[in-house]
Amino acid sequence: MHLCTSGPHAVLVVVGLASAFNATYQKAVQEHISLFTDEVWKHTIVLFTRGDWLGVKTVEERIESEKGLQWLVEKCGNMYHVLDNKNHSDETQVTELLEKIEEMWAGNKDGPFEVNLGHAEQTEARKEVADKKAKRIRQTAQRQARILKELFRGIPRSEKNHNV
Fold first, then answer.
1. Are strands 11-16 and 44-49 parallel, antiparallel or unpaired?
2. pLDDT for residue 76
3. pLDDT class for 91, splitting at 50, 70, 90?
4. Helices (H), 8-116
């Protein structure tokens, strides 16, 4: 991000339509977007890939059928685009996406998205603290598992079955 001198004009959140947008997927998107300030949503477009998987269903029907997709599309000001991965010869798909990006950029009175590197550094520091805590918890659980194995190793098999 620091290589974009004036900041990025658009952020694309890529969502494959071949799989469900479940709570885990939504949480991952939220965590990634949280690296930025809330202003990023004004510069974000949802890019749906695998539009060919929709069949006769429209993308709007798919969005309405999943609360997570509704949330995401609403956060992006209803800015989204669908790519059909099987139709490689249709160059209008990319042209239309670029037009939507230009339309969004023109509609943003504030100009490009300002990257707050301090915010990103703070978020990264919080992530490192959480990762260290998770590592300590894993190590404690592994140590406890080893101790339990050792304890059970000394008990005859018939006693183990009787106590369980």
1. parallel
2. 92
3. confident
4. 23-33, 59-65, 67-75, 92-107
Partners of 158 in beta bridges: none
Alpha-carbon span 37 to 35, nearest angstrom: 7
Helices (H), the chain: 23-33, 59-65, 67-75, 92-107, 117-153, 157-163
**What distances in angstroms separate CA 7 from CA 43, 88, 111, 139, one per listed residue?**
11, 30, 9, 41
Rounded (5°) CA angle 94-69-54:
60
Residue 100 CB coordination number (10 Å): 16
Contacts with 56 (C-beta within 8 Å, 6 or more apart), sequence order: none
The count of other CB atoms within 10 Å of the CB of residue 113 is 24
Start-to-end C-alpha separation, the chain:
57
Chain center to CA of 160 = 46
- Global pTM reads 0.66
